[in-house]
# Entry
Amino acid sequence: MASRSLAGLSGSRGSGGGGKKSLSARNAAVERRNLITVCRFSVKTLIDRSCFETIDDSSPEFNNFAAVLEQILSHRLKGQVTWFGYESPRSFWDYIRVACRKVSQNCICSIENMENVSSSRAKGRAWIRVALMEKHLSEYISTALRDFKTTRRFYEDGAIVLGEEANMLAGMLLGLNAIDFSFCLKGEGLDGTFPAVIDYTPYLKFEQSSDSISSDEEELRTFGSSDSDSSTPENVGPPLIMDENSWFNKCKRVRQKYQLTLEQKGYLEELLRLRENQLSESVSQNKILLQRIEDSDLAHKLEKEQLEYIIVELQDQLKSYQSLDQLSAEVSLSQASLDPSHSQEGDGKQESLNFICEGKEDTPSLLGLCGSLTSVASYKSLTSLKSNDCLASPTTEMTSPGLTPS
# Structure
């Protein structure tokens, strides 16, 4: 009997331990789901509020979102173990500071060097505001979550950043890049002495079913009345009045939604008109730039053609100069073989030719003309040499110019 009782006791203890484990797992799952759901609601309300006013530290929607994000990043965060074996609390800024170093142009160093922010929790809150103003909060979170080794080192099992909800978190924060935030980094929101508290009131909604016996006003009147007879079922209003109230409330909600949708429509139309104007301006500027590029290309082509024409003309002049040098060399050789009188005539002709060539421009037509004249003089000298069988001496020709050879 004793053994049976001990066995039953041990069995009850074992079942109790399993029940505690399942209960703790259920509580952790519910906590993660609640935080992610509230975070999604807070992001939606923040986006809706940004359509009508600027988001700053005084906005209750932002304060609620900052509290939700702080609790998500602090969910099941490990403490820091000291040398003496004691575990001290740690802020989510310690994790962000290490995991977000790989983000290009990050604000980690600037937040570390802030003078008015001393505690780790205050630095984490300043980082949330700076990341929202830079429109890089989703990028920071995605980079930190990809560093799984660092995340595992800072968080315990069952944390939100280690579960499947982490990918949902990065996707939800991406919509905040469309909001222009304006924060003062010296306000009361950076005080790290008080923990963040989430206000669940804006996200709670209770719809009374049609099977309910009485409305909310009737219940409040019943509970607040001191007369016991007022709580009898005979004093309860008919269902028709309850239906009218419910329809009136529904109509009021629909009217509010319609007004909100109308304002959003006007904002989107104004934004669309602004973007269309910007697009038309950019298109006109693009056309002007394309026209300038075409004009510059045409000018470059014309300049290239002119340069090619100048190069061809210079090459022709160079060839004419070379032919002129060859002809002058031939003329000098032919004149050296003749008598002094012919050489003097040749020198005179050569000087006159040089004068003509120097007086005019060195064009290919003039150079060709000079070449033709020199060729005529050399031709005449050669024919005179062929017509004379023997030449007289220079002295005889000078003394008796009238004599002719026999």
Remarks:
- DSSP finds 13 helices and two strands in the chain.
- The first strand starts at residue 80 and ends at 81.
- Confidence is low (pLDDT under 50) at residues 1-15, 226-242, 359-406.
- The beta strands are 80-81, 87-88.
